[in-house]
């Protein structure tokens, strides 16, 4: 999300700058091929600038583009997407780029807050950019007003129990889209990650759950590289309703965070004319967000996922939705690709983590290509790299959909649709 300028032929990256700014800057880092600098004075302000709506912007590392108006943010993200395809994949894409955006505030249904006890006070918030320092915030615009109330009550609860709550490393607020219509009751769960062997008091956690109207609290211990034990009070599952399907997820299972755009993401990903009465494979399927809508169109769907907890949730979600033409397979996408490939598949959906498609997946797609690939990406350079490999194997990039799932940050989601040139 940094601005890019040039000084005497050298690239200079400047955080929180805007296209069209004229700035005095101070160099804070010198590298052989670039500089990093901070703004000292804005001599001429860009017309794309605005007053950031959050008092913590500039300190908190949670947002990076809030000083720009939303239209400017979308223009920049579209440019980043197309430049990534060109730089990483050597693709000069001239087709349509559909853009979906929604409200810039109150969109997150999951948020993880860091906890730090200094000498004088408790800090709860997100880490400062490029630092491990926790910036203390009392309110976050990314979450709903009711979730902010849960944040406030949790902070008060920890501050009153300093000795015990010093064990807390992070906590996550999870908000359900299904619950009481008139109050918070039944809409929120908390997930604490703690260090050491001292467990939080169950009685005190029950008091927090009652005060904050939580449906449940989960505590996970962090020891070394693993998480050894977990206990809970109340109900830990959170329910999200998307396209008339209820998805139950537990702490540890991935689900898209933007409650305003998840319907658009599913619609752009899971509905294709090539899938009717055919075979669909959903790689990195998680709890079945795309798998279950695919099952409404396809004769058969295979969901592939390496997370045991997500597979449990996915199977329960299929059962709850009355879907019986789906099979969930617990293994990595690479292992499935090496073992089974995609011969006979009409449509493959892939929603990989930030690193992009595993090499074995790309190889299997090129050896036995489906009629259509719908690639959901959260990292534009990784998408560009994979798109270039797919293009060289005979796929054509037909269309792009940019979804601003993370407004005010430099992150966004892309749905890229590939088809075989012959088809």
Description of the molecule:
By secondary structure, this protein is α/β, with parallel strands linked by helices. The chain is 25% helix and 31% strand. Helix 1 packs across helix 10 and helix 8 runs parallel beside helix 9.
Topology of helices and strands:
Layout: E1 3-7, E2 10-14, E3 22-30, E4 34-44, H1 70-89, E5 97-100, E6 110-117, E7 122-127, E8 134-136, H2 145-159, H3 162-165, E9 168-175, E10 188-195, H4 202-211, E11 216-222, E12 230-234, E13 238-242, E14 245-249, H5 262-270, E15 279-283, H6 291-295, E16 300-305, H7 308-320, E17 326-330, H8 333-339, E18 347-350, H9 359-367, E19 372-377, H10 380-392, E20 395-403, E21 413-420
Parallel strand pairs: 2-4, 5-20, 10-11, 15-16, 15-18, 16-17, 18-19
Antiparallel strand pairs: 1-2, 3-4, 6-7, 6-9, 7-8, 9-10, 11-12, 13-14, 19-21, 20-21
Helix pairs in contact: 1-10, 8-9
């Amino acid at each position: 999300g940094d601005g890019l300028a040039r000084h005497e032929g050298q690239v200079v990256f400047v955080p929180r700058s805007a296209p069209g700014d004229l700035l005095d800057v101070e160099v804070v880092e010198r590298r052989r091929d670039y500089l990093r600098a901070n703004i000292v004075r804005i001599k001429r302000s860009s017309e794309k600038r605005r007053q950031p709506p959050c008092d913590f912007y500039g300190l908190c590392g949670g947002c990076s583009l809030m000083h720009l108006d939303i239209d400017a943010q979308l223009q920049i993200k579209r440019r980043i997407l197309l430049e990534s395809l060109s730089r990483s994949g050597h693709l000069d894409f001239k087709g349509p780029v559909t853009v979906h955006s929604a409200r810039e505030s109150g969109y997150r249904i999951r948020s993880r807050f860091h906890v730090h006890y200094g000498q004088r006070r408790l800090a709860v918030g997100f880490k400062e950019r490029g630092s491990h320092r926790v910036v203390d915030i009392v309110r976050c615009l990314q979450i709903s007003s009711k979730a902010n109330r849960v944040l406030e009550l949790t902070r008060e609860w920890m501050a009153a129990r300093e000795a015990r709550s010093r064990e807390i490393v992070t906590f996550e607020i999870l908000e359900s889209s299904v619950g009481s219509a008139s109050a918070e009751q039944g809409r929120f769960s908390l997930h604490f990650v703690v260090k050491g062997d001292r467990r939080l008091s169950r009685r005190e956690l029950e008091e927090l759950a009652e005060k904050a109207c939580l449906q449940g609290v989960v505590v996970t211990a962090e020891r070394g590289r693993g998480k050894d034990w977990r206990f809970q009070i109340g109900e830990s599952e959170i329910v999200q309703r998307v396209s008339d399907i209820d998805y139950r997820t537990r702490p540890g299972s991935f689900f898209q965070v933007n409650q305003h755009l998840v319907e658009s993401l599913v619609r752009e990903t899971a509905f294709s004319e090539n899938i009717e009465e055919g075979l669909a494979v959903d790689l990195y399927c998680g709890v079945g967000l795309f798998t279950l809508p695919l099952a409404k169109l396809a004769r058969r769907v295979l969901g592939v996922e390496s997370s045991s907890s997500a597979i449990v949730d996915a199977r329960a979600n299929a059962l709850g939705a009355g879907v019986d033409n789906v099979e969930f397979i617990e293994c990595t996408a690479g292992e499935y690709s090496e073992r089974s490939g995609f011969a006979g598949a009409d449509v493959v959906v892939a929603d990989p983590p930030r690193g992009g498609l595993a090499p074995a997946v790309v190889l299997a797609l090129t050896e036995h290509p489906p009629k259509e690939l719908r690639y959901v990406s959260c990292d534009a350079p990784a998408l560009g790299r994979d798109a270039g490999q797919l293009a060289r194997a005979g796929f054509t990039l037909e269309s792009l959909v940019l979804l601003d799932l993370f407004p005010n940050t430099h992150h966004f989601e892309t749905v890229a649709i590939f088809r075989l040139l012959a088809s």
